[in-house]
Specification:
Layout (H helix, E strand, L loop, with lengths): L2 E6 L5 E6 L5 E5 L5 H14 L4 E6 L5 E7 L2 E6 L5 H14 L4 E4 L13
C-alpha cells in the first residue's frame, strides 16, 4: 500500500512524502506555503503521473536519485539509492502505485501520537 503523508513543517509550510509498502519515504515534495498547493500537487501526480518528467541524477559520491517535474518545475525528489537497478525499481513502483495511493493528513495536529505509551 502506498501513501502520501502531508505534514506541517516548523516554518509553517506544508510538505508531503510518498511512501511504499514498508513505510520508507521514496519521494519528498517541495515545501508549499499553503496546504491547498500541496494537495494540488498530489492530485496532479495521482491523476496524471504520465505527464510528469522523471529525471535521473547522481551524487558525486555515486548514489542515485530521481526528480519528478512538470513544466520545468521540480515538484518532488526521491531518496538516494545505491544502485541503478534500485533506482529503476523505485521509479517503476512509484509510477505504478501513485494513482491508487491513499492520503494521510497529519498537518492539523502537531502531536499526532500524544498520550501513546512508547
Amino acid at each position: 500500500m502506498a501513501l502520501f503523508v502531508i505534514s506541517k513543517q516548523e516554518s509553517g509550510n506544508y510538505r508531503f512524502t510518498f511512501t511504499l509498502r514498508k513505510g520508507n519515504p521514496v519521494l519528498t515534495g517541495i515545501s508549499c506555503r499553503e496546504k491547498p498547493d500541496c494537495e494540488a500537487i498530489i492530485a496532479a501526480m495521482k491523476e496524471h503521473i504520465g505527464l510528469f518528467t522523471v529525471t535521473r541524477k547522481h551524487t558525486p559520491s555515486g548514489r542515485y536519485f530521481f526528480r519528478l517535474s512538470r513544466g520545468g518545475l521540480v515538484l518532488a525528489t526521491s531518496r538516494k539509492f545505491t544502485t541503478l537497478l534500485r533506482l529503476s525499481k523505485a521509479i517503476e513502483n512509484v509510477t505504478e502505485q501513485i494513482a491508487e495511493a491513499e492520503i494521510l493528513d497529519f498537518s492539523g495536529n502537531e502531536d499526532v501520537f500524544a498520550g501513546s505509551s512508547r
